[in-house]
Design a protein that fits this description.
about 800 residues, about 30% strand, single chain, mainly beta, six-stranded mixed β-sheet, 8 helices, 43 strands
Length: about 800
């Protein structure tokens, strides 16, 4: 499935699974170094526990504890702790939690990680917090001088990385120090050093299993608030106000410090997931950069306060990063509160609209962190939203620009005139000018859940609540009051049927379709082909899985999957399609482990024929040869240079030679690498790094080279290149694919307001493409909007179709 910059599924303060793609063959164990650069005599990893919240566990969260064996305090600013699965695959990534503050000589420093659904006891107030879900029995943790994710995946490679201060491999971890990993870690046991913090760079010798004993910088179990409002039960406010702890940048000037009796009115309560409540000071200061609200995190405990309570809150000021690339949320943790009164009016909400939200998106930091930059809320939208972090905001009569998600969220725009699409969405058409009016709406009230909405619908009246920030989507309204849905009855499009001499070629991402899926999914997708696409002659399919989907048993054929799909198309009124594909090697083409995702062609044998040339397989490249009758493929169906590094752990293009009305047409189906791993548009690193582009650029170059080889043999060859390219029409990927003028991107022939196939975070964007060679001069192209704009989707992509008048093409 494609994802935009920083894409993926959501995370909460819960168990965050590390999703990795299986590959054939494990990493080979190499000779292990006797030690890393040198055993640490100062800060080391003193304890690791990954069983938090698991079955049998007492503690609700995983943790990493550091200890300082030195004689002076050790500054941890710019450091991080990082985690890698014990048996990393090619796609496994180190996960990062940034650190701050310092660890005293002889002291401890506690890093809280992901929580599970079990356990009864909270950790002591952590000194830093992350969201890494560590394995209870098997993994590697590194203390790193820096916050950039490590890339090493063997003990030898990690030993050569001088950023690693200390490293602990436990269970059967491939990456570890010395002759073996520390053993005995489980749901109920951590691995820990002796009290002396001795480090010989041999994990097996230095750490032993035992009951978890987390200790923070202030000693185990310390409660900063003292359990009574922080000062003997006083009902007088302390000296710190919310705007003091929020400050004028994204980071609190009081981060890591204990605050006492901070006054505020409770404006929202979150009783599930990331539990806690928001307080807002009704007495604002004169600085527009400083938020007047803050989230009070209560961990696994359900908040006991109510909206309208006047409270004094004591606790530790913490910057919580939902992910390693996200912005932070300023919170008060380990908190206690004194309720002074109830039923008080909540502070007025700040209006979000075209006037208040700036047109600029975010300041630049040259790719670095914007955390320390002074906020400019009059200039940049993300600075404006940050200056309102936790505060009550409201929006009125907001148009829906992203259908309600399975996570009960809906995207709206507070700028109705910003980059409108033809059907009510907001177009994403430039890296340089992201849309600033988009914002996500969620409901804090389970009895007033987000209604099922499609693009173009409207939340009429007023929607209001605290402004929050999350990994996915960034800033969002935690609505305590929801507007009323006005259904504008968006219709799914139906394209026209091709004429007799028009060859209709379509592409459709069918979102991990496999033979074990429910019949309803087959029927919905089949209707899209037979009715909405009006039965194309050729359909290039992306995300066809093998016959048992994610069952990881070595099955690679997709006959049962395609049989069920073509039967469903025929039942929906379509033709009896035949199919062609090349099976991948087991677990070598990326996607869901065990699913063996691949591309496939459907074709209607009543109108078009397929030219079979045997010999094409998972590892054999097809080529082009010259004949008296023009160009032909050496293998059909075949793959483009499958041995190239460009296709490592990724889908290989499928090439087929078709014949229609006496003419050859070459169709090249593609599914380029996803955007996974890119930094988000709304994150703390600006401008965001789009690391996933490198592979797509290589893939585009491979396809471009193949098309050039085809045109070198026959400059009038009719080629259609299509599929899910996972990149935008303005991207370098498309530029590389079209280099030399060998292909024309058909999306650019449409009016700008119709150029989208996918909706992500309220941005209507083009990820799926159809391109044609110069000989194809007479065509009719259409993106058929049936999925991406709707809450109820058969797939997350819209299909598209081109009808080619082959008789009037260049010869």
């Amino acid at each position: 499935m494609a994802r935009n910059v920083g894409s993926g599924r959501r995370t909460r303060r819960a168990v965050y699974p590390v999703i990795s793609v299986a590959v054939a063959g494990a990493f080979a164990l190499t000779a292990l170094p006797a030690a890393y650069a040198a055993p640490s005599t100062t800060v080391v990893i003193s304890e690791v526990y990954g069983g938090g919240g698991n079955s049998g566990a007492t503690l609700v969260r995983d943790f990493i504890e550091l200890g300082n064996a030195g004689t002076t305090a050790h500054d941890l600013a710019g450091y991080s702790v990082q985690y890698l699965p014990g048996s990393p695959s090619a796609s496994s990534l180190w996960q990062v939690t940034a650190l701050n503050g310092s660890v005293a000589p002889g002291g401890r420093y506690l890093v809280a990680e992901a929580a599970g659904s079990g356990g009864t006891a909270e950790l002591p107030t952590p000194d830093a917090s992350g969201s890494i879900a560590m394995s209870a029995g098997n993994g590697t943790v590194a203390l790193v001088s820096g916050t950039t994710a490590l890339t090493c995946k063997t003990a030898a490679d990690c030993a050569a990385d001088d950023r690693i201060v200390d490293l602990v491999g436990y269970g059967s971890a491939v990456v570890r120090e010395g002759g073996g990993p520390a053993t005995g870690a489980s749901n109920t046991a951590s691995v820990a050093r002796a009290a002396t913090l001795a480090d010989t760079d041999d994990n097996a010798a230095d750490l032993a299993a035992g009951a978890p004993t987390p200790v923070n910088s202030g000693a185990e179990g310390t409660d900063p608030g003292g359990g009574d409002g922080g000062d003997g039960g006083s009902t007088e406010p302390g000296t710190v106000r919310v705007h003091d702890l929020q400050g004028t940048t994204r980071l609190s000037p009081l981060n890591g410090q204990t605050v006492t009796r901070v006054p505020g009115i409770v404006t929202g309560v979150r009783a599930s997931g990331s539990r806690g409540y928001w307080i807002q000071d009704p007495s604002a200061d004169a600085d527009p950069r400083t938020s007047e609200a803050v989230f009070v995190y209560t961990g696994s405990a359900t908040p006991t306060v109510a909206v309208g309570d006047s409270v004094l809150v004591s606790g530790k000021v913490t910057e919580y990063y939902p992910s390693s690339t996200s912005q932070s949320v300023t919170e008060i943790t380990g908190a206690t509160e004194t309720v002074l009164s109830g039923g008080n009016p909540v502070p007025d909400a700040v209006v979000l609209d075209s006037t208040s939200v700036p047109d600029g998106y975010v300041p630049t930091a040259g790719g670095g962190s914007i955390d320390a930059l002074p906020l400019a809320p009059d200039t940049y939208a993300l600075d404006f939203y940050e200056s309102l972090e936790g505060m009550r905001v409201e929006l009125s009569d907001a148009r829906v620009v992203g259908g309600t998600t399975p996570y009960k969220e809906v995207w709206v725009t507070v700028k109705p005139d910003e980059s409108p699409s033809a059907r009510g969405g907001t177009l994403y058409s430039s890296y340089d000018q992201p849309n600033t009016g988009r914002i996500k709406v969620m409901s804090l009230d389970a009895s007033a859940a987000i209604p099922k909405a499609d693009v173009g619908d409207e939340l009429t009246g007023t929607t209001s609540g605290p402004l929050d920030y999350a990994t996915y989507g960034g800033y969002n309204v935690q609505a305590t009051r929801l507007g009323t849905l006005a259904d504008h009855d968006l219709q799914r499009e139906v394209t026209r049927r091709q004429k007799g001499r028009e060859l209709a070629v379509a592409t459709y991402n069918v979102e991990n379709l496999d033979a074990l899926d429910a019949q309803e999914k087959f029927d919905r997708l089949a209707e899209g082909v037979a009715v909405n696409l009006n039965s194309p002659d050729i359909v290039a399919l992306e995300e066809i899985q093998d016959d048992n989907g994610p069952v990881n048993d070595g099955t690679v054929t997709a006959e049962a999957t395609l049989t069920r799909f073509t039967d469903a198309i025929r039942a929906a009124g379509g033709p009896g399609y035949s199919w062609r594909y090349v099976s991948p090697e087991n677990n070598q083409d990326g996607g869901q482990p065990g699913g063996n995702i691949r591309l496939a062609f459907l074709y209607n044998p009543e109108r078009v024929s397929f030219t079979d040339r045997a010999g094409g397989d998972a590892t054999t490249a097809t080529g082009v040869v010259r004949t008296r009758k023009g160009a032909r493929l050496t293998y059909s169906p075949g793959r483009i240079n499958p041995a190239s590094d460009a296709w490592d752990d990724s889908r290989k293009p499928l090439v087929g030679e078709f014949r229609f009305h006496g003419q050859n047409v070459f169709v090249i189906a593609n599914h380029f690498g996803s955007k996974g791993g890119d930094q988000p548009l709304h994150g703390r690193y600006q401008e965001p790094t789009r690391s996933s582009e490198t592979k797509r650029h290589q893939q585009a170059a491979e396809v471009n080279t193949f098309v050039k080889s085809l045109l070198a043999v026959d400059k009038d060859a009719k080629a259609v290149v299509l599929g899910d390219l996972n990149d935008f029409e303005f991207s370098q990927t498309v530029g590389t694919l079209t280099d030399g003028g060998v292909l024309t991107p058909l999306v650019r022939t449409l009016p700008a307001a119709e150029r989208y196939t996918y909706v992500y975070d309220g941005n209507s964007q083009t990820l799926d493409h159809t391109l044609t060679s110069p000989a194809i001069t007479r065509f009719d192209y259409d993106i058929v909007h049936i999925n991406a704009e709707f809450a109820d989707q058969a797939s997350d992509h819209d299909p598209q179709i081109v009808r080619i008048d082959v008789g009037k093409c260049r010869k």
